[in-house]
Write a structure and sequence with these properties.
This protein is an alpha+beta fold. The chain is built from 6 helices and 4 strands. A hairpin with a 5-residue loop joins strand 2 and strand 3.
Length: about 150
């Protein structure tokens, strides 16, 4: 069934991930969304769904109205999410610091298609992935090169 789904949708379901992007305020969407669209235009990602969330100073999560988001982005039409459930949005929003906004993006990592296709040809597949926190990467790089030189 997996191969049938892939053929019908054109989406490699093994390459779908979500990202949670923290933004200082709602107006930052005017920069974040065009950058996201640029990635899609380059073919690196296929944006499947996205939603804006807000976490107020008390940590309460809400989704700004579609009209408000459309006004900030200066667009007439903005489709609300369809792949993300209310629970998905709430869980993702918990990652945001109180008093901030965020963008929850569901995307297909199109850049990984050659890898997925190669694995599939030998009966393999990508089954998991996780982002490594920034501070862990920075610490590892410092340990690797404590003098800071090349």
């Amino acid at each position: 069934m997996g191969e049938i789904t892939r053929q019908l949708s054109g989406i490699d379901c093994d390459l779908v991930e979500y990202l949670v992007v923290a933004l200082p305020d709602l107006e930052a969407l005017a920069t974040a969304v065009p950058a996201m669209c640029q990635l899609e235009g380059s073919g690196a990602l296929r944006i499947l769904d996205w939603v804006v969330v807000e976490r107020d100073a008390e940590g309460v999560t809400q989704v700004p109205s579609v009209d408000l988001v459309a006004a900030v982005l200066h667009v007439d039409v903005f489709d609300p999410p369809s792949l993300l459930s209310d629970r998905d949005v709430a869980v993702a929003a918990e990652m945001l610091p109180p008093g901030s906004h965020g963008l929850v993006v569901v995307a297909e990592d199109r850049w990984a298609h050659p890898l997925a296709d190669g694995l599939s040809s030998v009966g393999g597949r990508i089954i998991a992935g996780e982002r490594i926190p920034r501070d862990r990467v920075e610490e590892a790089l410092i340990r690797r090169n404590p003098a800071g030189g090349a």
